[in-house]
């Protein structure tokens, strides 16, 4: 079986840069000719939107395939180019999650879908998760081999990271012994403030220097790019955002070669 890396971007906290990191990291990796799939597990469908797929053209089939794997059809995948693909359930995931009960919930549903249909076709899968640690995030983490935790560098956010790490360990114990934390990704980072630097150091002390990915600075181009359905390197190649995400991608790929 082909060696595939399946990486979830997770944090319970909203607006910490999960989706921005997911689509830009995936996009930059696909430019290196790794065949890459983004799975948008957030009912907000922001990763889909970021790549120009609106609420109206998201297929309910993705969610049907989670409940009945035989319902799978190629049409659940949108092709951006030869190396970059995206799928997700958008608003249909909301209803799906609402109707789940602890008894009806199959935590392996997404993993089964990936291993039945995507595993041989991709080098990387990135999963964007909603800002919660409920069913949809559980599905995502059970299906993943690695996790990136994007976080702001302030007191409350760092406390939130500890909660996410505990949750990942619960998933590891109960369902997915293979899952590892690939790294914590400081976002909206401002190296000119002492508080940013202080909490970056704190993260390094708490989780180990090798677990902290290169920080992503506050950069307005990152917030503008989705309005044009573009990734950061297509929107502004010379931006801080493109520079910072390129560093993160190199850190991810160094691990790939080992
Ligand atoms: N480094 C950055 N600098 C400036 N703006 C950013 C940066 N990263 C993300 N943004 C903007 O901040 C907002 C929140 O980012 P994003 O949607 O990636 O967060 P999220 O964690 O996915 O949010 P949610 O929890 O709602 O899914 C978006 O408008 C995004 O364009
Ligand atoms: Mg998001």
Written account of the structure:
This protein is of the alpha/beta class. It has one domain (5-257): P-loop containing nucleotide triphosphate hydrolases (Rossmann fold, 3-Layer(aba) Sandwich), CATH 3.40.50.300. Helix content is 44%, strand content 15%. It contains 11 helices and 7 strands. The chain has helices spanning 18-31, 46-50, 61-67, 92-99, 109-118, 135-143, 155-174, 194-207, 220-224, 232-235, 240-257, and strands at 5-9, 36-40, 78-81, 84-88, 124-128, 146-152, 180-187. The protein has a 7-stranded mixed beta sheet with strand order 3-4-2-5-1-6-7, with helices on both faces. Strand 6 (146-152), helix 7 and strand 7 form a beta-alpha-beta unit. Helix 1 crosses helix 11. The longest helix is centred in the middle third of the chain and has 20 residues, at 155-174. The chain is globular, with a radius of gyration of 17 Å. The model has no long low-confidence stretch (mean pLDDT 94). Adenosine-5'-triphosphate is lined by residues 14-20, 42, 44, 46, 131, 187-188, 216, 218-220, 222-223, 226.
Total number of domains:
1
Name the poorly predicted regions.
none
- Termini separation comes to 18 Å
The main sheet orders its strands as 3-4-2-5-1-6-7
Cα radius of gyration in angstroms: 17 Å
Tell the overall outline: globular
Could you estimate the helical fraction of the residues in percent? 40-55%
CATH class: Alpha Beta
What small molecules does this complex bind?
Answer: adenosine-5'-triphosphate, magnesium ion
Main β-sheet description: 7 strands, mixed
Count of β-strands: 7
- CATH fold-level topology: Rossmann fold
**Structural class assignment:** alpha/beta
From the 3D coordinates, which CATH architecture would you assign? 3-Layer(aba) Sandwich
- Give the overall average pLDDT: 94
Number of DSSP helices?
11
The fraction of residues in strands falls at 15-25%
Order of helices and strands: EHEHHEEHHEHEHEHHHH
CATH superfamily: P-loop containing nucleotide triphosphate hydrolases
């Amino acid at each position: 079986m082909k060696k595939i890396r399946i990486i979830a971007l997770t944090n319970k906290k909203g607006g910490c840069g999960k989706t921005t990191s997911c689509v830009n990291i995936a996009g930059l990796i696909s430019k290196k000719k790794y065949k890459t799939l983004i799975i948008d597990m957030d009912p907000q469908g922001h990763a889909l939107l970021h790549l120009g797929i609106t609420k109206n053209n998201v297929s309910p089939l993705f969610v049907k395939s989670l409940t009945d794997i035989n319902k799978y059809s190629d049409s659940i995948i949108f092709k951006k180019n030869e190396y970059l693909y995206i799928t997700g359930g958008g608003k249909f995931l909301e209803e799906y999650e609402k109707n789940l009960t602890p008894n009806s919930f199959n935590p392996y549903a997404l993993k089964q879908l990936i291993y039945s249909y995507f595993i041989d076709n991709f080098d990387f899968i990135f999963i964007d998760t909603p800002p919660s640690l409920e069913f949809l995030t559980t599905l995502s983490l059970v299906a993943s081999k690695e996790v990136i935790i994007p976080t702001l560098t302030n007191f409350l956010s760092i406390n939130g990271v500890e909660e996410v790490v505990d949750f990942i360990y619960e998933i590891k114990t109960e369902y997915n012994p293979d899952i590892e934390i690939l790294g914590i990704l400081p976002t909206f980072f401002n190296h000119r403030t002492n508080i940013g630097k202080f909490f970056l150091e704190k993260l390094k002390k708490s989780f180990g220097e090798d677990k902290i990915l290169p920080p992503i600075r506050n950069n307005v181009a990152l917030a503008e790019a989705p309005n044009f359905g573009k990734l950061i390197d297509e929107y502004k190649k010379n931006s801080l955002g493109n520079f910072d995400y390129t560093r993160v991608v190199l850190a991810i790929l160094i691990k790939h070669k080992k």
